[in-house]
Design a protein that fits this description.
This protein is mainly beta. It has a domain of 216 residues: Porin (Beta Barrel), CATH 2.40.160. 14% of the residues lie in helices and 45% in strands. The longest helix has 15 residues. Keywords: Signal. This is Penicillin-binding protein. It comes from Niastella vici.
């Protein structure tokens, strides 16, 4: 019954999707940034990767599994211009109701900025920040289906301008362990503002309908992932008419239909190589990111590409990722995953079904 209700929710979402605002016109766009090194290395978006990293369930609650009981993800990001990002997430499995829960926070600090009046007089300093706190729950349906829901509280503070909101994510995953593949469908950031920044009209949240497929090869240490995003709207290509006119690109824009661009801007490709059972190498390519950071005919370097490495010990996972947003410039991300019950006791991990 619960699974059927979830399907009905997705059908309702599809009927309402066209009402969502596109691109940078939405509020709380920090919700679209990657929260873990593995996700960053996979291209910034991935909802189907077959892994034991609870951090990926932050964006798709259907990826929560009983084996993630007491697993905790701790991440530190160093963005450009001194921006800091901290992420914490932990899971808990309740055997009596066959449900896996998770709680997490993603916090962005933009440092100290002088606060001035209209004439430039310094009135003090402000510390702008954004954060989201969320609770998730996931269950299994049959042998291969998993579904989950996430509730979010969002807060944004820029000096005297503050806003808060509520949102929800819904995810469904189909996992075929016999053939080593998994597919997921997720509707993210459905909700609205409780309080606007200036008391004016409420803005739209960065809604996203995503589909992902991951396949691990049976006779090679490789896994491939294909992620589609912004499925509710085909044309997400940004067209700056003023810039095109000034640079002489407007005529080309009129003559081309950009079918290739419009399709692949929805696609993220990723691959993982398992060197051993304890070391994995990850690489991703985000076509939309590369195209949007294109500087006309100048070289783009590795813009849109990302890579990472994970070292997976029995009691701890250590991950590092590097992602490129500017030519010859990148940002780094570090993360640790550990299972608390390995350090503080079993925590009731085993249940009557023998899940671990």
């Amino acid at each position: 019954m619960q699974f059927r209700l979830l399907i009905l929710c997705f059908l309702f979402i599809l009927t309402r999707a066209n009402a969502q605002t596109l691109g940078g016109n939405t509020v709380y766009n920090f919700l679209q940034l990657s929260n873990t090194p593995q996700l960053t290395a996979l291209g910034g978006l991935n909802i189907s990767n077959q892994t034991a990293d609870i951090g990926l369930a932050f964006n798709n609650p259907a990826l929560l599994r009983p084996a993630m009981h007491t697993q905790t993800s701790m991440v530190f990001n160093s963005f450009y211009a001194g921006i800091k990002n901290y992420h914490l997430m932990t899971g808990f499995y309740k055997g009596s109701i066959a449900t896996t829960f998770a709680a997490g926070i993603n916090y962005f600090s933009y440092g100290s900025i002088p606060e001035t009046d209209m004439t430039g007089n310094v009135m003090g300093t402000m510390r702008p920040n954004d954060y989201v706190v969320q609770l998730s729950a996931a269950r299994q349906y049959g042998e291969r289906w998993h579904y989950g829901v996430t509730a979010k509280f969002i807060h944004s503070s820029y000096g005297i301008y503050r806003s808060s909101g509520l949102a929800m994510d819904i995810g469904i995953a189909y996992a075929d362990s016999a053939h080593l593949w998994q597919a997921s469908l997720v509707a993210r950031n459905m909700g609205g503002q409780l309080k606007t920044y200036s008391g004016s009209g409420a803005g739209d949240l960065p809604f996203d309908l995503q589909l992902g497929i991951s396949k691990r090869l049976a006779h090679a240490p490789l896994q491939f992932s294909l992620t589609f995003f912004q499925l509710h709207r085909f044309n997400i290509r940004y067209d700056d008419t003023l810039f095109n006119s000034e640079t002489g690109l407007d005529q080309d824009s009129k003559e081309k239909k950009y079918i290739f661009d419009k399709f692949f801007m929805h696609v993220i490709l990723a691959m993982q190589l398992y060197l051993t059972d304890k070391v994995e190498i990850t690489a991703g390519y985000n076509y939309l990111r590369r195209k949007e950071l294109n500087i006309t005919n100048a070289g783009n370097g590795l813009n849109g590409f990302s890579m990472g490495v994970g070292v997976l010990f029995k009691k701890i996972q250590i991950r590092y990722a590097r992602s490129y947003y500017q030519n010859n410039s990148s940002y780094n991300q570090f993360g640790l995953n550990l299972r608390l019950h390995d350090y503080f006791g079993s925590g009731g991990l085993l249940n009557s079904k023998g899940n671990k």
